[in-house]
Amino acid sequence: MKPDEMLSRLAPPRIGPFKQDAFGSPLHSTRNAAWLGLALGISFTVCFATGLLSHLIQHPPGWFSWPPRPAWLYRATQGVHVATGIASIPLLLAKLWTVYPSLWTWPPMRGLAHALERVSLVPLVGGALFLLFSGVGTISRWFPWGFSFPAGHYSAAWITMGGLVVHIGAKIGATRLALSRRSPEVRPEAVAAQAGLTRRGFLATVAATTTGLVAITVGQTLRPLASLGLLAPRDPRIGPQGLPVNKTAATANVVEAAMDPEYRLRVEGPENLALSLEDLRAMPARTAHLTIACVEGWSASAEWTGVPLRDVIALAGGGPSSTCRVESLQDQRRPYSSSEVSAEQLADADTLLAFELNGEALHIDHGFPVRLIGPGRPGVQQTKWVSRVVVS
Amino acid sequence: MGIQGGGLVNEENTSRYGPLFWTCLLAGWAVIAFGLWTVVSRPGATHPLRFGALFMTVLIVHDGVIAPITLGIGALLASRLPATARSVTQGAAVASAIVVAYSLPLFLGLGNRPDPSVLPRNYGAGLAIVIAVVWLVASVALLRRIGRRA
Fold it and tell me: ipTM value of the model?
């Protein structure tokens, strides 16, 4: 006798979740599972694609280059990443609730395929919960896990999406059928026994909660909705000079070096330069409307004034094909203490070494004396407290 | 019945194990293997043991604690509430529980705040407003329902 036959001959234990009527609610319906699965499949795919894009922008392989224009693009994709992640919370919890009885299915495996399918739910469900937990933790600035968030979140995303591919392979037929049928979704006797939420009522509740949760958080990047952002981790209007900050000068341990009157910006290229803030201010300046778009999903725009980085590069003997690395005053072993600027980004006149924000000298938490800011770059690449530019 | 879109998820196995399943199984596990490789190949960043610990913790806490408690509360509400109030209360409870779950680290103030632009709002008050709105909407819906019946 095959092991699965032996298992199916075993009488199911008639206790707890194995009891015949352990899950009486008609809301544990295949059709509900199909609708929620479809919504979740879409939200996770969008979230994965936008997250992967953000990863590529921050760690570009040779074949990838992120253009500075359109300047709003990263703000949009990363805003969508965090918003779809938040939207996935009600969807995932509702979906797991709906299919929870299947966890206690008897026999636990009906053959090799069923066993492999069920094992593949571990990366899917564990990964999905991991991604949403770590994502919410991070935007709430709470990191109770002891590993690098971007690295862990990235790995978990691949594991989850692999699990999703297996799950789609097993369930696509059932999902199609469940969604195409116009027949009564729930057995009449079950409906009669239950005067509570209907199947549609449950889906409507989940849809309303999803929409509501996005509405009260998305104001951190959609400024017109900022006042509605009751549970948004950021407010794009709040911060020094009316702009949020992710890393303060004190946290970065640069206060003393940034305030040093002997501060010089060193530019290393065919020629080496050491420029004081006054030297930079004496150069032809440019003002541009640019956005800080944080990987955490908030964004805020302002008027930045400074010297186009390409002009400084030219002064050091660089040309139109030059690229450069911009380093901050921070300890260079710290993450996000420097950033690379591509030739395409350098060619854009709005890629600035800025020293003014909204017409005032930069606040130290925004990168005084000089910061890098350019169109379309993730916030972590808008390096603050610039001390050195290495041209290559 | 389950496969016809009318049944409950535990009535039968709705999975189909044709060529599509086996193709997706192979492709999916190739992707999972890549994900696992990105964990073990960067131990300094991912700390594989801590990564694995969080992975299994969220899974076990959800399936072993949160889901059974939610189901228990749901069953209690369904059996104790008068029929008229049942669906509205269940809907409001679902919405409230999800909003609370999302905002736990915010209103408990678990995040660190190096400057006032980080977590700048009063999240306790924000949560209270959101929950109040949910139950206000639920109350209006219930009153309308009672009005219709009367």
Answer: 0.95
Alpha-carbon distance B143 to nearest alpha carbon in chain A (angstroms): 16
Half-sphere exposure of A207 (CA within 13 A, CB side): 11
Name the nearest CA neighbour of A243 among A330, A288, A304.
A304
Query: Tens place of pLDDT for every residue, chain A, 392 residues?
Result: 666 667 667 777 778 888 877 888 889 999 999 999 999 999 999 999 999 999 999 999 999 999 999 999 999 999 999 999 999 999 999 999 999 999 998 888 889 999 999 999 999 999 999 999 999 999 999 999 999 999 999 999 999 999 999 999 999 999 998 898 654 454 554 454 457 889 999 999 999 999 999 999 999 999 999 999 999 999 999 999 999 999 999 999 999 999 999 999 999 999 999 999 999 999 999 999 999 999 999 999 999 999 999 999 999 999 999 999 999 999 999 989 999 999 999 999 999 999 999 999 999 999 999 999 999 999 999 999 999 999 99
Q: Does A334 reach chain B within 8 Å, measured CB to CB? A: no
Tell me: the pLDDT tens digits for B29-79?
999 999 999 999 999 999 999 999 999 999 999 999 999 999 999 989 988
A4-34 residues labelled b (16+ CB within 10 A) or e (exposed): beebeeeeeeeeebeeeeebbbbbbbbbbbb
Residues of A in contact with B25 (CB under 8 A): 116-117, 120, 166, 169
Both tokens of A338, joined, read: 């420097």
Tell which residue, A377, A327, A328, A329, has the closest CA to residue A351. Answer: A377
Phi, psi of A299 (to 5 degrees): -155, 155
Name the residue among A91, A132, A367, A137 with its Cα closest to residue A233.
Answer: A137
- With CB atoms and an 8 Å threshold, state whether B98 touches A209: yes
Closest CB to B129: pick one of A90, A171, A230.
A230
Distances (CA, A) of A188 to A25, A184, A191, A198: 13, 8, 5, 12
Per-residue DSSP letter, A240: G
> Cβ of A211 under 8 Å from any chain B Cβ?
no
Measured between beta carbons, the chain B residues lying within 8 angstroms of A204 are 91
The CA distance from A249 to A365, in Å, is 5
Best mutation target, B1, B4, B9, B136, to test chain A (most A CBs within 10 A):
B9
B3 part of contact set with chain A, CB < 8 Å: yes
Q: Per the confidence metrics, is the pTM higher than 0.90? A: yes
Chain B hits for A148, CB-CB cut-off 8 Å, are: 45-47
Q: Is the peptide bond before A107 cis (omega within 30 degrees of 0)?
A: yes
Distances (CA, A) of A194 to A187, B2, B9: 11, 19, 17
Helix axis angle, A127-139 to A149-180, nearest 10°: 130
* Cα-based angle B15, B20, B21 (whole degrees, multiple of 5): 45
Does the beta-carbon distance from B7 to A96 stay under 8 Å? no
Asked if A122 and B59 count as a contact pair (C-beta separation under 8 A), the reply is: yes
